[in-house]
Amino acid sequence: MARKLRVSYPGVAEHIIQRGNNRQVTFANDEDMRAYVTWLKQYAQQHKVAIHAWVLMTNHVHLLCTPSTVTGISKMMQSLGRMYVLYFNRRYQRSGTLWEGRYKSCLIENEAYYMQVCRYIELNPVRANMVDDPADYSWSSYQCNALGKRSGLLTEHQLYASLGSSPIERQAAYRALFIHHIEGKLLDDIRQATHKGLALGCDKFKQEIETLTGLRVTEGSRGRRKGWRKFGS
């Protein structure tokens, strides 16, 4: 069976998750995470991908980013994956694969889900019982978005910029979003959409993405949408 084509579109935010093979450790210490972030920044800039949120866990990574080109994210992840695996294998005198196949991703409707996915990503260490407060975890974007820590990796999304007229106002408004955890249907929806490569948003958003790309981003439909050819190149 042919692999399902991954959907990406310029200007549309995308949630990405990549896990270690068999959930094995991919980051053994801070030095590993620092190396990964260095290359992530390099290849994001090279392939014109804006990184808005991230978290590096012991055996997986979450990213929220917006590409400027159709292939930007896939090229970024391919370059990053190759470089980091080479580094990891040399450092720990191992060979073979590190990541669990291809990364998983889904497109995000900004108005309804962008901030929810930010919360989902940055609350990962809390859900994993690693910390009680996301502010206490160093390897995520929370300290940047909520506390003003500077990072050359971060690009502010327009929705984040709309939270306030000053950095202090935006950070306070952002912190207020984290009073409650991600639970129930919302948690399931984010996980399912990312795992299955679907779009996360309203029906209109999903239909627009399918029309623009000619690819399925909803469950229940099959193959390419009618009329997809006139948008392809």
Strand line-up in the sheet with most strands: 2-3-1-4-5
- What is the number of strand segments? 5
Q: Specify Rg, calculated over alpha carbons.
A: 18 Å
Secondary-structure element string: EHEEHEHHHHHHEH
Q: CATH superfamily assignment?
A: Transposase IS200-like
Please tell me the CATH architecture by its name: 2-Layer Sandwich
Number of helices: 9
Taken from the alpha-carbon principal axes, the silhouette is globular
**What's the pLDDT, averaged over the residues?**
91
- Domain count: 1
Terminal CA distance: 25 Å
> How would you characterize the largest beta sheet?
5 strands, mixed
Helix fraction by DSSP (H/I, runs of at least 4): 40-55%
Q: What is the CATH first-level class name?
A: Alpha Beta
| CATH topology descriptor | Alpha-Beta Plaits
Strand composition percent:
5-15%
Q: What structural class is derived from the secondary structure elements?
A: alpha+beta
| Uncertain runs | 221-233
